[in-house]
Amino acid sequence: MTNGQTNLFYTGKGPCTAATLLGSGGEGQVYAVTEYPHLVAKIYHTHKATAELHTKLQWMVAHPPTDPCAALKHISIAWPGDILYSDPRCQQFAGYLMPKISGAKKLAAAYHPPTRKQQMPGFTWQYLLCVARNLASSLQAVHNRGYVIGDLNESNVLLFPSALITIIDTDSFQVVTPTQTFRSCVGKPEYTAPESQLRNFSTFDRTIHDDGFALAVLIFLLLAEGRHPFDGVATTVPDCMDIGERIRANWFKMAHAKVGAGVSPPAKCPPFATLPPGIRDLFLRCFVDGATRPSQRPQASNWMRALDVAMQNLSVCTRNPMHAYSTHHRECSWCRRMILHHMADPFPLPGNYRPSPTTAVGRTALKSQPPLPKKTRTMTTATPIPQRKAVIPVPVSQQPAKAIPAKQSITNALSGLGGAKQHVTPIPQSSGIPVKLAQSCRVINNQCSPAVALPSAKPIAPAEKIPAAPPITPSLFGVALPSAQGLKSRG
């Protein structure tokens, strides 16, 4: 503690001891609380603990939003729980108590492929869709209570291996009471809507349309491997390095929507057509239609419904089961991208197993693969399996994996489990790959949480929980693709 502060604080329920320092910033410091291990205390610097902030937090404590993850016993919005004072009479405002969030990563750990491989191994594109869906769910809960985040960005969203999220820094939200508006005075240009660029946020009221723009940027980052929607390469227009200027000039419209010309998509950005049609439509509504008419931007509930549909229409690559792609593609969009552009696998499988010839996708083959015996040298396309309800195989969760008998075929093991359309070829017994499906893989189904999200979901629907994703161990799916060079055609 500094500036004469002690480590003993008070609420209306009694004293609290601020123990271990957990972090510090420009506004104050965060401490563990001895009396409440599940809470932490944010203690403001003396010059930041103003009467206006005190009034704002009092309103927030009395009017919390409904957490969409309450049924999952997860906190998706780290809301202030009680006001802290430095005196027993509770007269001198000092800070507030909030939930303790442990075991989370920053959101950027999921959408940058190299970081994802290290910090969130096992995350597939379905996980990224679910993260986006859960973020939209929490934002809708905030809006339904009348709040605006204002400064929604990647640094105030935490991510868990189960694809659940937590929004933090809630004390910076814009709060409107019957008598006063407490504005969100901060913001990052890369998440600021064009009509709000270059504005003084301390004198400017944000709206849900500002949050809608920031949400769309975050979803684009998640689904486009960390590429900002307004990044690009200037071809016939003046180049500019300032992201705010690119937003005002609407580089997205030129680079991705192909309206006009002058900007091409940034290097290594997945093609806009990779996204499911419903998701593309929402991006066009937000960044093209909403550029001059903010009310045209999709609300968080629109994103929830579109993402629910996208998660129910996924296929699994026959070469790499970590490749989940939209069913509007006839083949794996990630493999195709690796082949055409000689790119690294964005969702690699660890291990050194070589796929069986019967699991090859068309004429694609691994680079530098040892020669096969002559009798099996021809790579043939696997006989397609009739479509049925299936699911993307994912890494083991923090909960016990569902046991599947070792002798059970992969076809039977994956059939009848809702999620994606199955494009999986049975691996023959002679492949030499050990069967460890029960120990290393857990399937996803719509019963993993009470949040079965449908297109007609309510504005606040419980967030959908996906089993956690620690690293995969080589197993029945142990097919490793090459790194930087990716796949190449044999023909």
> Roughly what percent helix?
10-25%
How many structural domains in the coordinates?
3
Order of strands across the widest beta sheet? 1-2-3-4-6-5
Biggest sheet statistics: 6 strands, antiparallel
List the helices and strands and how they pair.
Blueprint: E1 8-11, E2 14-24, E3 28-33, E4 39-44, H1 51-62, E5 82-85, E6 93-99, E7 105-106, H2 108-111, H3 113-119, H4 125-144, E8 157-159, E9 165-167, E10 175-176, E11 181-182, H5 208-223, E12 233-234, H6 243-249, H7 251-255, E13 263-264, H8 277-287, H9 300-311, E14 314-316, E15 324-326, H10 333-341, E16 364-366, E17 389-390, E18 394-395, H11 410-414, E19 420-421, H12 437-440, E20 441-442, E21 487-489
Antiparallel strand pairs: 1-2, 2-3, 3-4, 4-6, 5-6, 7-8, 8-9, 10-11, 12-13, 14-15, 16-21, 17-19, 18-20
Helix pairs in contact: 4-5, 4-9, 5-8
Give a written overview of the molecule.
The chain is α+β, with helices and mostly antiparallel strands and 491 residues long. It folds into three domains: 92 residues, 2-Layer Sandwich (Phosphorylase Kinase, domain 1); 207 residues, Transferase(Phosphotransferase), domain 1, CATH 1.10.510; 139 residues, no CATH class. Helices cover 23% and strands 15% of the residues. It is globular and about 70 Å long.
Keywords:
disordered C terminus; single chain; Phosphorylase Kinase, domain 1; Transferase(Phosphotransferase), domain 1; 491 residues; alpha+beta; globular; three-stranded antiparallel sheet
